[in-house]
Specification:
- The protein is mainly α and 292 residues long.
- It has 16 helices and two strands.
- α4 packs antiparallel against α5, α5 crosses α9 and α11 runs parallel beside α13.
- It is globular, with a radius of gyration of 20 Å.
């Protein structure tokens, strides 16, 4: 297993795909050898020097703690790291949409975490262990760190990260649902979390079947009308980001607080929980026996 590069930058930067490709070597994807870091530092695009958010040390500290804490069950690290990464790396959605930021984090700052979390287990069909390249440089729902940050952003309920822990504790939920546009509707995201938390849906087949049914039904029902959300005030998010310079490190033992935004209207969540429960009862779920 690889360790961190000899040279880890002190600040995050932007790493374009064209510059990153030559560092995604076969040795790295097999977790056998990592680049030294110096040559990679020469091809990045710097971020503003006066913004405290780009300091690397708080993120390095987080991933090292995650590796130690979850050394016996790496999958569980997602639910722990997602809210803490989101609260540490305070971004606007526009900033978070920049893949170059996540590529730099994965390849220059914490390639050892990517390898630890995503190196495949050997199987009869694929005996060679390997890290999918998309975990370093890939779409938002697959890249190692962007998937966690966006899961925290889309599943948090105002400042409350508890729904994020539930969502990221179910790999099928974040794999299946994160890439669908419907969870950008906050009541829908919270209703899905409650169905998982209550045990009404649990397996990948159940989550995928319900997601398909929700998407199909939403084409005609329009969830914004069925279960309205409150308009979001951008002020609390701006203030939360501005406080990044003086914010203390996130606790390793209790959940941090997110932006002080209004929670999702409870009536809308409750309505969708009932609606999705009805959809789930009739949704075609592969492997589920039909009642006679």
């Amino acid at each position: 297993m690889i360790t961190q590069p000899d040279h880890v930058p002190e600040r995050l930067a932007l790493l374009p795909a064209s510059a990153a490709d030559r560092f995604l070597t076969e040795q790295l994807l097999k977790a056998e050898q990592v680049h030294g870091g110096i040559d990679l530092a020469k091809v990045v695009e710097p971020l503003p020097e006066d913004d405290a958010r780009w300091a690397v040390e708080p993120i390095r500290s987080l991933v090292e703690d995650a590796i130690f804490e979850f050394r016996d069950d790496r999958t569980r690290a997602d639910a722990w790291l997602a809210p803490r990464l989101h609260a540490t790396l305070r971004l606007t959605r526009r900033e978070a949409a920049d893949k170059r930021l996540w590529t730099h984090l994965a390849l220059a700052v914490a390639p050892d975490y990517v390898a630890w979390r995503h190196l495949s287990e050997p199987t009869a069909a694929r005996p060679e262990r390997r890290i999918p390249a998309e975990r370093f440089q890939g779409p938002a729902d697959r890249q190692c760190f962007s998937r966690l940050w966006w899961a925290a952003e889309l599943f948090r309920n105002g400042p409350d990260y508890e729904p994020v822990e539930v969502a990221c504790g179910n790999q099928d939920l974040i794999h299946t649902v994160l890439r669908r546009d419907l969870i950008d509707h906050r009541p829908t995201a919270q209703a899905l979390v409650r169905l998982v938390k209550s045990g009404k849906i649990a397996t990948g087949r159940e989550i995928n079947g319900l997601s398909v049914a929700i998407t199909a039904a939403g084409a005609t029902l329009v969830y914004d009308v069925l279960a309205p959300d409150e308009p979001r005030d951008p002020g609390p998010l701006r203030n939360w980001i501005a406080e990044a310079e003086t914010a203390p490190p996130v606790s390793r033992h209790v959940l941090p607080d997110g932006p002080d935004e209004d929670p999702v209207p409870e009536d809308s969540v409750a309505l969708l929980v009932d609606h999705f429960t009805e959809l789930f009862e009739t949704a075609p779920i592969r492997g589920r026996k039909s009642e006679i």
